[in-house]
Design goal:
By secondary structure, the protein is α+β, with helices and mostly antiparallel strands. It is built from 2 helices and 2 strands. It has a domain of about 45 residues. Strand 1, helix 1 and strand 2 form a beta-alpha-beta unit.
């Protein structure tokens, strides 16, 4: 993407901000992803590359099914 404008988009989840039963490893991964989005946005923004993270709410995935609170 360097040398031309572009965009990176990631999907995250509230499990990155608060602990949730059964979401241990995924929560750590999502928290790391959110930090990475902030750093990439800062370093690539000057080159016209946008970096964004979206937390759209609960999505039924294999990881989400493991959470006892998913349906709440």
């Amino acid at each position: 993407m360097r040398g031309r404008k572009g965009a990176l988009l990631t999907l995250t989840y509230i499990g990155s901000l608060r602990s949730m039963p059964g979401y241990n490893v995924m929560g750590l991964a999502k928290a790391s992803l959110e930090a990475n989005v902030r750093y990439l946005a800062q370093s690539l923004g000057a080159e016209g590359i946008r970096v964004n993270g979206i937390s759209a709410g609960p999505i039924r995935t294999l990881a989400a099914r493991e959470s006892a609170d998913f349906e709440k």
